[in-house]
Automatic annotation (TrEMBL):
Name recorded for this polypeptide: N-acetyltransferase domain-containing protein
Superkingdom of the source species: Eukaryota
Organism: Vanrija albida
Start and end residues of each N-acetyltransferase domain: 11-171
PANTHER family, A to Z: ACETYLTRANSFERASE, RIBOSOMAL-PROTEIN-SERINE ACETYLTRANSFERASE
Amino acid sequence: MPPPTLHGAGVILSAPEAADHAPLLALYTANEGTLNIPSPYTAPDGDAYLAAAARSEGGHIWAIRAADGAELIGTVALRFSPGARTADLGGIAVAEEYRGTGLATRAAALVIQHAWDAGFDAVEWECLAHNEASVALARRLGFAFYREGVSSSSFERYRGAPAVWGLLRRPGPLP
């Protein structure tokens, strides 16, 4: 089942489509150091990514699009296990020409609101310790960093790399 389409703040988050294959390849080739994305990123990685997005097993993967809903200009993911009270936000990548525009912040905020609406109590964030843009984005969103250690990435290139973890709790009283 594809993820729900999310709208707001001049951005649309929708399920990646087959037409997004080439833009994904360009996006991820240019975004070295994104923890949950293989590097180097190849065409078969794109095939696997689109297949995983279509299945939505263990979470949702969204294409970030401008308000007109046209081209893919980034991605964001929310991963979770059935029955879990905490979700993991990650896989955030934005095309170079959109960096510094607040696009990643707005897209991540939509996903966080989706997590609250879905009943999660908290959202976690893991990123490579040297990824200053990711650390800054997490802080802008209100994440409190609570741990440093080695990456939990399943990709060999990042396995064992220094990483940091942040936590954002749902505001207000919990059910």
